[in-house]
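Could you help me review a protein record that somebody else here produced? What it holds is a sequence and that sequence's fold in token form. I need someone to confirm that the token line plausibly describes how this chain folds. Take the sequence as given and treat only the tokens as open to question. This is what I was given:
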Amino acid sequence: NMALNNSQQATASVLRDSPAWQALAAHYAKSAPDFDLRRAFASDAQRFESLSLEAPHVFADLSKNYLDASTLAALHQLAEQCQVEQRRDAMFAGAAINHTEERQVLHTALRRTDAELTGDLAVVAQTRQAFLDFAESVRANPKIRDVVSIGIGGSDLGPRMAVHALAPFND
């Protein structure tokens, strides 16, 4: 288990002490021991429809998870109490929410066009272009035949998925 820094410990403590977390924990203690997924489907003919979400290119079937409408309501209450929507909006607005480094999180800027990356975000466009230039120089160098990705834990998953997804476009 990864150790939490002081800020993360304080945040976790505030979360665990919140009324919404307490309500969610009480709901779990009451309903989890007796929850039976077969019974949940048998008693709710609309379970699949009511617990499935769809967005462009994404489908999530939550119906086969150990939750119900009251669990979702408790989770929504927790998200509301933790101000998840406001924090998300602050992230996309470019607020300095990376408290460890006291700066913006920049991964959301990767989804923007270069024209949208102005001011402090211009560094993202410059870094992206440097990355693309490097990739092209590797591809253009006949001495480089193989690339090895060395990572720990889950850090290999992203590159492996990218290689798999881009394999049809390999020349």
